[in-house]
């Protein structure tokens, strides 16, 4: 495992409040560059984080119905059966300058959600992110690049309900040309973005890219 220059991870984002249908106030993240997750260089090894294949980046609406929006409720756990994720969640706040925090390095097994925006299942675009690796090895979203369209993401909530999302796209973007509008702009349906880092690791600057999973709410229980 390569040595990392730092354990500090940061996510650069500017956000603005926006009115959404049904009277909810949501947050749109206007990311200038991709989320910066400075990891520990496992991508330099043959067993480094997987990357989505080019074919996975083709976005197509498969006609699956979108479930009705859910009321706001704090997410407590995220499960992605296809890649073995079953992780507790913690809230992540944006600073006054618009920098979005990520889970601290000693909580690399946890996922975080942007609590300044909608919660998973609400109308709009909820954002979940987490580490790809740590000093101890693979972290919570190490295998995110293995996901394929049609996979299920389940988010357990404090109200006892579970929001079930279906993946309809996955791609990897260079941080310097990150398509913020496509990734973060609020949709007119309940959507989810799950993000980690990927691409080439460079000591001092971290990973060059972000893996982004796009999913929509298809059920609740």
UniProtKB/TrEMBL annotation:
Region (Disordered): 44-72
UniProt keyword annotation of Lipoprotein present: no
Gene3D superfamilies listed in its UniProt record: Sortase (2.40.260.10)
Pfam families: Sortase
Transmembrane segments: 23-43
InterPro entries: Sortase (IPR005754), Sortase_dom-sf (IPR023365), Sortase_F (IPR042001)
Statement: the UniProt record of this protein carries the keyword Cell cycle: no
Alphabetized UniProt keyword annotations: Hydrolase, Membrane, Transmembrane, Transmembrane helix
Entry-linked NCBIfam families: class_F_sortase
Record protein name field: Class F sortase
Source organism (scientific name): Yinghuangia aomiensis
């Amino acid at each position: 495992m390569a040595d990392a220059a730092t354990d500090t991870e940061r996510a650069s984002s500017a956000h603005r409040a926006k009115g959404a249908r049904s009277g909810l106030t949501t947050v749109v993240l206007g990311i200038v560059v991709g989320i910066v997750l400075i990891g520990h260089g496992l991508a330099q090894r043959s067993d480094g984080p997987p990357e989505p294949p080019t074919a996975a980046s083709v976005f197509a609406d498969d006609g699956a119905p979108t479930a009705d929006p859910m009321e706001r409720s704090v997410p407590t756990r995220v499960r992605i059966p296809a890649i073995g994720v079953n992780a507790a969640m913690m809230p992540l706040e944006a600073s006054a300058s618009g920098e979005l925090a990520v889970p601290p390095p000693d909580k690399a097994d946890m996922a975080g959600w942007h609590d300044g925006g909608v919660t998973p299942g609400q109308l709009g675009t909820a954002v979940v992110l987490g580490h790809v690796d740590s000093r101890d090895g693979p972290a919570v979203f190490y295998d995110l690049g293995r996901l394929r369209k049609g996979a299920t993401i389940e988010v357990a909530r404090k109200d006892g309900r579970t929001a079930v999302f279906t993946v309809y796209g996955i791609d990897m973007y260079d941080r310097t040309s990150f398509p913020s509008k496509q990734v973060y702009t609020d949709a007119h349906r309940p959507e989810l973005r799950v993000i980690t880092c990927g691409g080439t690791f460079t000591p001092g600057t971290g990973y060059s890219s972000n893996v982004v999973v796009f999913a929509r709410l298809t059920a609740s229980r």
